[in-house]
Write a sequence for this structure.
């Protein structure tokens, strides 16, 4: 029997706090979740919960929600010290402080060890505080309209001021909605509401790790706050909008009703098209299968089989396992043009190799108060940017000797994975390039370089010799939104998994939560001690696949839009349950910016600006004087010292001072944007004007900027690379020239101070991880000129329930058959009790069998066979 959110989401509400069997836990951690402490504040919080629950079932209808306003106002007045103020927002965002409400919650949840917070209150309940903020802010526009229109009458005693008593609230709310709906709302009021809602999100800590409100039966969580804030931003905080009480009320009411309705559809069972195997090969036109379906066993097309060597680069070990296992399986059989395949890894820092690590658990120690407080601290994300020339140098060193010894039976291909920017290093190669993309393509790319990088990426994808693959429809839609092109989709096959499910009779439920929220603590607080099921965190195990497979079921908390661990567990056949609470996945644009000196400031009008396509105007980080030493290149044979000082300002104008023994030359030059990023990550060419044109000996000079640190390259001598010597060749992007002919121009001494400490502006990464990274990395950067048809909606947006639902309909973890979903703890416990492991395992194995059959055929026919038939494979020795 399927249970809906409206039926059981808050079934614990009537028992928790009243001594019911569903809430038998005791102690401060139970008080933190359920507000069942004794005292007047706790009683008010209990009444508030019940009243808001009634209104929530009707989409938070104002006349029903108005009954909760008196209690909400009382709690806000008493708990005002727990709410972040305007003064300490910067300290919280930078991680120096923790919101007092989050601090109190963490202290209670950790058992109260260590020093007590100065503002601790035994009756304080974080979830009740959030609900009170939501209710009070909901009625602020109505109060403003009533008091403004009746100010004179109130002052003269002709009207009583609106009452917060239940009956009085209903009267002035009804009159404000019907009589004063056309009143304009001042920007100051809307701004204050918008910032108050975002400050309330601080109560849940960094990445909202403490938000399990819906799990334990509270009707208001961060999802409702985010939806409320988005209504204010879209209706009232845009310059072109005229905000009236009627517009805001209608939009907000519709949003909250839709949010309530869509909260159940996010967790719906998959549609029928996902219950049958996905026929990838049959659904694509023949033109999509580059190279055609040419088989070596046909009489008309006999293809000589080859030994394929794959040069891999990336930082994700699980992806290497996935590709290697899939390709080795795909080349088996008569229809393959490959009789052997070898893999060589260019990078050695694989960050993650799946669940099977060598970490063995010691005695598990539950997180104490200090641990939880540290977890709730914000952290401004620092970006580690990757310059493609590092991967290019690795390829040159490793591949050079191999190519010289390659024979007619050999073939080679370059495979790039994460981060996608490493693919740029191979843009000038004649060999085929395969990109397997399990994430967004702008990861680890400096903000000002995203436009040139997307131009290069789209150009490489259009090249018939290359094969760009995504592992899900969600990322296919995101790639299309920013490049205007669709890629081939091959699902994760997880053939490297050799562990099967063995937990049919177990009573242990594994909570796999790498985002380290308090889901495990919340489930433990909901489950009676005598309950037959026991929840165990993944850090309490030895983190081996075989150990995970011994659990009856697994609760998987997604920490990203696509996560390899999900497909690993699904291939094992372990029954999986995923939280479907929208509060875990909604990420709005944050109203914070960073001004000079690294000071964080609130800005309600903040919106991430559109980024230039070719880099024009994005010179904010170029300002400064860069002292370069060109003597190691130009004066190598003569021993002459030649120095170059480049003075860059916030424009494309460059002042150049060249110094050699006994002479100085000063002239102006221009940083001209390249048509696309080149294979070294350069985005501009340095072009002197007039008589100083040949000052670099007629050699091309290219530049890139990584947040203030300059990367400069001197091209080959004239005549060594004709394509580069042609008019406009220096600004043409990747050019087929020998890598060894380019020389990096180093700094003379230390780089400019502070360059390495600079970061992208504006600040939008303070609360971005998991599903939020899609908005941060893609933002509003779109190659509009490459788009033939604009997709409806932003596929990377996760700021509303509607946009989240659109995204989840393309995510494997929400669409694969027999993946359970839950919102409340009651729903999860019911589904776990009704679970039939054998039936679930059978469906999962049958589905993966069909996925693997179709996926392997596509790898073989559309990618690998086409790669070995490319003309560049005829004589590899010429590519050195």
């Amino acid at each position: 029997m399927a249970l809906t959110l409206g039926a059981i989401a808050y079934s614990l509400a009537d028992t928790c706090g009243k001594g019911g069997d569903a809430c038998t836990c005791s102690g401060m951690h139970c008080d933190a979740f359920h507000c069942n402490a004794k005292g007047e504040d706790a009683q008010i919080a209990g009444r508030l919960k019940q009243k808001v629950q009634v209104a929530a079932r009707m989409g938070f209808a104002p006349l029903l929600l108005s009954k909760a306003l008196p209690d909400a106002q009382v709690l806000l007045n008493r708990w005002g010290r727990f709410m972040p103020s305007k003064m300490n927002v910067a300290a919280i965002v930078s991680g120096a402080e923790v919101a007092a409400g989050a601090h109190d919650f963490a202290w209670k949840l950790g058992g109260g060890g260590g020093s007590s917070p100065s503002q601790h209150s035994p009756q304080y309940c974080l979830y009740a505080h959030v609900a009170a903020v939501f209710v009070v802010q909901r009625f602020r526009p109505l109060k403003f309209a009533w008091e403004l229109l009746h100010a004179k009458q109130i002052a003269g005693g002709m009207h009583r001021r609106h009452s917060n008593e239940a009956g009085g609230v209903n009267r002035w709310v009804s009159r404000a909605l019907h009589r004063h709906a056309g009143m304009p709302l001042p920007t100051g009021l809307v701004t204050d509401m918008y910032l108050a809602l975002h400050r309330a999100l601080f109560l849940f800590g960094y990445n909202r790790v403490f938000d399990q409100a819906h799990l334990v039966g509270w009707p208001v969580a961060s999802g409702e706050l985010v939806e409320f804030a988005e209504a204010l931003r879209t209706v009232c905080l845009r310059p072109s909008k005229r905000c009236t009480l009627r517009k805001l009320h209608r939009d907000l009411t519709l949003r909250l009703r839709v949010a309530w309705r869509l909260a159940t559809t996010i967790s719906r069972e998959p549609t029928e098209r996902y219950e049958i195997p996905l026929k990838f090969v049959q659904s694509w036109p023949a033109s999509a299968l580059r190279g055609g379906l040419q088989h070596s066993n046909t009489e008309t097309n006999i293809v000589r089989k080859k030994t394929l060597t794959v040069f891999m680069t990336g930082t994700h070990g699980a992806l290497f396992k996935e590709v290697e296992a899939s390709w080795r399986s795909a080349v088996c059989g008569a229809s393959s043009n490959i009789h052997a395949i070898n893999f060589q890894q260019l990078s050695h820092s694989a960050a993650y190799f799946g669940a099977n690590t060598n970490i063995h658990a010691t005695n598990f120690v539950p997180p104490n108060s200090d641990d939880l407080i540290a977890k709730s601290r914000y952290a401004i994300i620092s970006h580690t940017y990757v310059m493609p020339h590092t991967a290019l140098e690795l390829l040159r060193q490793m591949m050079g000797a191999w190519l010289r010894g390659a024979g007619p039976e050999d073939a080679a291909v370059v495979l790039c994975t994460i981060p996608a920017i490493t693919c740029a290093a191979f843009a000038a190669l004649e060999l085929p390039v395969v990109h397997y993309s399990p994430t967004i393509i702008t990861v680890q790319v400096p903000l000002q370089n995203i436009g040139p990088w997307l131009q290069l990426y789209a150009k490489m994808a259009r090249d018939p010799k290359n094969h760009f693959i995504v592992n899900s429809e969600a990322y296919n839609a995101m790639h299309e939104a920013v490049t205007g092109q669709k890629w081939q989709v091959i699902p994760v096959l997880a053939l490297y998994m050799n562990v099967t499910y063995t937990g049919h009779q177990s009573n242990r439920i594994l909570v796999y939560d790498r985002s380290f929220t308090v889901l495990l603590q919340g489930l433990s607080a909901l489950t009676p001690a005598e309950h037959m099921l026991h929840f165990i965190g993944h850090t309490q195990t030895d983190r081996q696949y075989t150990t995970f497979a011994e659990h009856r079921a697994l609760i998987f908390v997604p920490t990203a839009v696509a996560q390899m661990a999900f497909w690993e567990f699904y291939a094992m056949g372990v029954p999986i349950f995923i939280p479907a609470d929208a509060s875990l996945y909604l990420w709005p644009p944050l109203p914070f910016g960073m001004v000079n000196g690294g000071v964080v400031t609130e800005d309600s009008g903040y919106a991430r600006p559109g980024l230039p396509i070719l880099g024009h105007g994005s010179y904010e980080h170029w300002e400064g004087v860069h002292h370069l030493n060109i003597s190691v290149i130009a004066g190598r044979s003569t021993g002459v010292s030649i120095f170059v000082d480049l003075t860059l300002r916030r424009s494309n104008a460059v002042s150049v001072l060249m110094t050699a023994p006994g002479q100085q030359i000063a002239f102006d030059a221009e940083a001209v944007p390249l048509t696309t990023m080149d294979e070294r990550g350069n985005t501009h060419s340095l072009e002197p004007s007039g008589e100083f044109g040949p000052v670099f000996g007629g050699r091309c000079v290219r530049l890139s900027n990584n947040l203030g640190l300059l990367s400069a390259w001197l091209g080959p001598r004239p005549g060594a690379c004709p394509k580069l010597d042609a008019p406009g060749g220096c600004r043409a992007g990747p050019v087929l020239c020998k890598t060894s002919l380019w020389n990096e121009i180093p700094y003379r001494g230390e780089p400019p101070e502070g360059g390495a400490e600079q970061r992208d502006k504006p600040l939008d990464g303070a609360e971005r991880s998991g599903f939020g990274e899609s908005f941060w990395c893609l933002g509003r950067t779109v190659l509009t000129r490459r788009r033939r048809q604009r997709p409806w909606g932003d596929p990377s947006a996760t700021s509303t329930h509607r946009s989240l639902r659109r995204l989840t309909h393309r995510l494997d973890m929400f669409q694969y058959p027999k993946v359970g979903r839950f919102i409340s703890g009651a729903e999860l416990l019911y589904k776990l009790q009704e679970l039939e492991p054998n039936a679930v395992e059978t469906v999962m194995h049958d589905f993966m069998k069909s996925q693997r059959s179709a996926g392997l055929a596509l790898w073989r026919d559309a990618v690998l066979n086409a790669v070995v038939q490319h003309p560049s494979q005829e004589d590899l020795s010429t590519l050195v």
Remarks:
- The chain has a mean pLDDT of 78.
- The first helix runs from residue 5 to 8.
- The longest strand covers residues 663-673.
- DSSP finds 30 helices and 21 strands in the chain.
